[in-house]
Predict the structure.
Amino acid sequence: MKLLTLPDLGYEYSALEPYIDARTMEIHHTKHHAGYTNKANAVLEKYPELLKEYETPEGLMRAWSELDLSEPDKVALKNNLGGYLNHALFWRLMDPELKPDQTLRERVVARFGSLDRFKEEFSQVAVGHFGSGWAWLVEDDQGELKLYSTPNQDSPHLKGHKPLIGLDVWEHAYYLKYQNRRPEYIENWWQVLKLI
């Protein structure tokens, strides 16, 4: 595994307007995601053996609890590698060129009864999350679809789960446009989610 690089969005910061404004996208990507990337790299540079042992950032995150690092570095790696991975997925899910995943849509409908019911339950998880964090649709270690939220930048990979859909509910993701109106942000985010 090489040091992490900040992924390019692949689309303009204004591409998600009017639902997510260009200024929020630019700050979110160039400041927040870049910060997580740089801070994760600062830890990885101190432990070059990690770069040899683990093939991907996801693999490293799954093994996080077993890593033999100083406690401050271990916490910093969890927070910042989580922030790196969470945001990398978040941007991809909203790519205007992304095509819907018909297989995932069918799995979601089979699990939740309908796409509308899934959106309602996912939105409830996102609205109900206290403080900063993420709402997730994941595939667990048994291959089942589950909804839950995580605090801060905790990643589903920490539980051995594969994140499929993630929504950033940190205020920095929506405050410039929506202020404290998280439910409105979540409702509008469905307009830019391209996966299903």
Notes: Residues 132 and 170 are 4 Å apart (CA to CA). The helical segments are 22-46, 48-53, 57-62, 71-93, 102-112, 115-128, 175-178, 182-189. The mean pLDDT is 96. The chain has eight helices and three strands.
